[in-house]
Fold:
Amino acid sequence: MLVEKCPIKLVESTDYKTKAYDKWVKVDKMGRCYILASMKNMLQHQYQSMTIAYDKLESLTEIFDEKNRAAKQTAMKSLLTTKMIEETSVREHVLKMMCLLNKLKILGAIIGKESQVEMAYRLYRIVFNSFA
Structure:
């Protein structure tokens, strides 16, 4: 419901449309309360005047999406440039790589099949070279 814009309430609406509108208004009101309650005071003051939860979510997405993109780029750079340190166990290196992959997954990064295969191959080469 919060990701939908407000349906138009017409004077001569069907019973179904009226119920849908009333439900949307109720959910929107709850959503606005939850959003404001979870914000710091400074943000609460800025978003108090917005009357629709959808608008608040859109605005917050615009603000914080850029930070998320930067975090993804940093994690991806770390993943691609991480090298196994001498005298470090293969297990530690693999765990470090898995941690970076998990971080990317949490941030919503999508890693294509070809990239996954390439990463698996790199790990295989590391393991193979450490026992050679």
Remarks:
- The chain has two domains: 1-64, 82-132.
- The radius of gyration is 24 Å.
- Residues 9 and 21 are 6 Å apart (CA to CA).
- The mean pLDDT is 77.
